[in-house]
Amino acid sequence: MSGERILLVEDDGSQAKPFSQMLEYRGYTVRWAQDIVSATRIAREFDPHLVIADLLLVSTEAEADGFDVITTLRSASFATQAFGIMVWTSHFVNAKDEIRALRSGADEYLRKDAEFGLIEARLEALLRRIRQLRGS
Q: Which of 80, 103, 105, 136 has the fewest CB atoms within 10 Å of its CB?
């Protein structure tokens, strides 16, 4: 379904820009945040269906990582609608971090080097569940 809103939390513009463009090409409305402060502000204003967050936000002044983004957005009082969180990371995938992300509130966990078709299929599956929860 096109027009669904996605918030991408990624500190590296060289990765965020092409990924955002691919999502926009497929009909999604994308906003980009580079840190937890802007992610929280944009989420409040944008009401995303899905948040895609990198775990390693190394260039942020807020000194918060993707785990902090997940817990902050999940606990935010402004979230009046259901939304999904997908971790999209180049971070070395290990069971400990994946478990931590999922227990922190992420719904999905994928590596950035996954084939885009796989990322897109999981994104579509997650958005189907969000549409059901939102009743749309």
A: 80
Spatial distance between the Cα atoms of 93 and 37, rounded to a whole number of angstroms: 26
pLDDT digits (tens, 9 = 90+) for 83-125: 999 998 886 668 888 899 999 999 999 988 899 899 999 999 9
Secondary structure element (H or E) that encloses residue 32, with its range: strand 29-33
Per-position DSSP letters for 61-97, written without gaps between them:
TT---HHHHHHHHHH-TT--S--EEEEEE-SPP-HHH
Which uninterrupted H or E stretch holds 9?
strand 5-9
- How far, in Å, CA of 58 to CA of 65, rounded? 8
Give the strands of the sheet with 108-111, arranged side by side: 29-33, 5-9, 50-53, 84-89, 108-111
pLDDT, tens digit, for every residue of 40-59?
999 999 999 999 999 887 65
Q: How many residues does the chain have?
A: 136
pTM exceeds 0.70 for this model: yes
Q: Which residue has the tokens 């802007």?
A: 38
